């Protein structure tokens, strides 16, 4: 674990408790329609399924019963 943290160029991903998967860094995301979305810094992906802006988190997890397993 410590070795990974020492690589400053490694992609950092945080799994937020009862919340989104947060990816830090530049991303190119191809959505279900084939459109490409570019992100520059930090991107939160929905894990709960309630977001109306999939695949991104829109904060809807706060109003659901979503639990980590
Ligand atoms: S994790 Fe935030 S809306 Fe699903």
Element-level helix/strand string: HEEEEE
> Quick one: overall form?
flat
Low-pLDDT ranges: none
What do the pLDDT scores average to? Answer: 90
Strand order of the biggest β-sheet: 1-2-5
Alpha-carbon Rg, integer: 14 Å
The first-to-last residue Cα distance is 22 Å
What structural class is derived from the secondary structure elements? Answer: mainly beta
* Major sheet size, sense and barrel closure: 3 strands, antiparallel
Q: What is the percentage of strand-forming residues?
A: 25-35%
Number of domains: 1
The distinct bound ligands, ions and cofactors come out as: FE2/S2 (inorganic) cluster
Individual helix count: 1
Q: Specify the helix fraction band.
A: under 10%
Q: What is the total tally of β strands?
A: 5
Structure report:
The protein is mainly beta and 69 residues long. 7% of the residues lie in helices and 29% in strands. The chain has one domain (2-63). The protein has one helix at 2-6, and strands at residues 12-15, 21-24, 27-30, 36-39, 42-45. The strands form 2 sheets. The protein has a 3-stranded antiparallel beta sheet, with no helix packed on it. The chain binds FE2/S2 (inorganic) cluster. FE2/S2 (inorganic) cluster (FES) binds at residues 19-20, 46-48, 50-51, 57-61.
